Amino acid sequence: MGYFLGVFYFYLWYTSILAGYLCFYCPILPLVMFSNKLYRYYTDTILTFWQQYPTVLVQLLCNTKIQVTGDSIKSNEMSILVMNHRTRTDWNYLWPSLYHSIEGMHRFKHSTKFLLKDVIKHAPGPGWVMQLTLWIFIKRLWIMDKKNLEKFCDYVSALSYKFSLLVFPEGTDFTEDTKRKSDNFARINNLQEYNYLLHPRTTGFTFLSSQLLKQKCLDAIYDLTIIYPDIIPQTEKHLLRGNFPKEVKLHIRRYPSSVLPRSEDGLKTFLEEVWKKKETVLKNYYETENFPEGQTLKRSSLGLIPALIFWTILPYITIYLLIYYNTFRRICILHTMFLICTSFLSGGFQWFEISLYDIKKEILGGIFAF
């Protein structure tokens, strides 16, 4: 039964992404030629609605209880989320946590994007949607990554774009091997050795945060601490076998821009202090089972029913359209070919989108580049 549940979960998850890509993202591509803001609006609305689907699958199908406490995430803000990367499957439990924690009238279009390794953008389906929804992919070659982050920050500022960007400062998930490397780094640099965390890599975070603060478009940084009280699903294989945790806890702490340092050195110290506090939180929990105090963030699961019905049915509608409508099939094929080409030739569609905006701005002037 466990293995069947795991396979069924991934089947529903993956087919919903492919169907969403084919039915929504392929047809609206021409919109970016006319308006970057409108393209961002529609793609983010689709993504935010889809994010409810893994939420309902985790809570209802996999029967995992999600407990979120602390500060709510404001949907009228551009924010950076920093979270400990306990497992490779953390994202499965981030969506439900965000469903309960994002508040405000713009929550229906307030998407959450990730900063990820470059290779992930090529994953058929998920990687394509990530590119189209402006996720950031880094090569871990700082000369190139710095230029791309600069372009990203300029674009976000130009559009007055509001969303959340999740950053895993540790750079990888917590395992025996990565902990050993982190401990070696701590000893070489005369730092505290962590038992529940890896030492954060600060370069990308500090540069990204300082650039956004300079352009006055970063409203807050949120510190997210995720805890698995029972089963720890370290890799996708654990979930595939049906080893879903019975409970996941997440605590959120908000740091408004008014309290953030402006310099990269100051932001580096800030992140290191956040990580020390996070280590204390995890230590206290695993030793005493005391979870950080704060308001409980909980939203009714009834709001997830439309997403459950819609995204479960959509793959079969997509199959019907692909079989019986030649125009739809051609649009999907041409779009996918174009996307694959941009992935390899320009580094990803997100950079094509930003370059297109810059060209329109140069030709038409800033007042017409929207």
Characterization of this structure:
With 370 residues, this protein is an alpha/beta fold. It has one domain. Helices cover 55% and strands 13% of the residues. The chain is built from 13 helices and 10 strands. It has helices at 2-25, 31-34, 36-61, 90-101, 126-132, 142-159, 176-188, 203-214, 236-240, 264-288, 305-324, 326-345, 349-364; strands at residues 65-70, 73-74, 79-83, 102-103, 112-117, 136-138, 164-167, 220-227, 247-256, 296-297. The strands form 2 sheets. The protein has an 8-stranded mixed sheet, with helices on both faces. Strands 2-4 form a two-stranded parallel sheet. α1 packs across α5 (126-132) and α8 (203-214) packs across α10. It is globular. The N and C termini lie far apart (51 Å). The model has no long low-confidence stretch (mean pLDDT 94). Keywords: Acyltransferase, Membrane, Transferase, Transmembrane, Transmembrane helix. This is Phospholipid/glycerol acyltransferase domain-containing protein.
Q: Please report the distance between the alpha carbons of the first and last residues.
A: 51 Å
| Helix/sheet category | alpha/beta
Low-confidence stretches: none
Order of strands, main sheet, comes to 6-5-7-3-8-9-1-10
Shape: globular
Sheet with the most strands? 8 strands, mixed
Helix content: 40-55%
Total beta strand runs: 10
The percentage of residues in β strands lies in 5-15%
| Mean model confidence by pLDDT | 94
Count the DSSP helices: 13
Radius of gyration: 21 Å
Secondary structure topology:
Layout (H helix, E strand, L loop, with lengths): L1 H24 L5 H4 L1 H26 L3 E6 L2 E2 L4 E5 L6 H12 E2 L8 E6 L8 H7 L3 E3 L3 H18 L4 E4 L8 H13 L14 H12 L5 E8 L8 H5 L6 E10 L7 H25 L7 E2 L7 H20 L1 H20 L3 H16 L6
Parallel strand pairs: 1-9, 2-4, 3-7, 3-8, 5-6, 5-7
Antiparallel strand pairs: 1-10, 8-9
Helix pairs in contact: 1-3, 1-5, 1-11, 3-4, 3-11, 6-8, 8-10
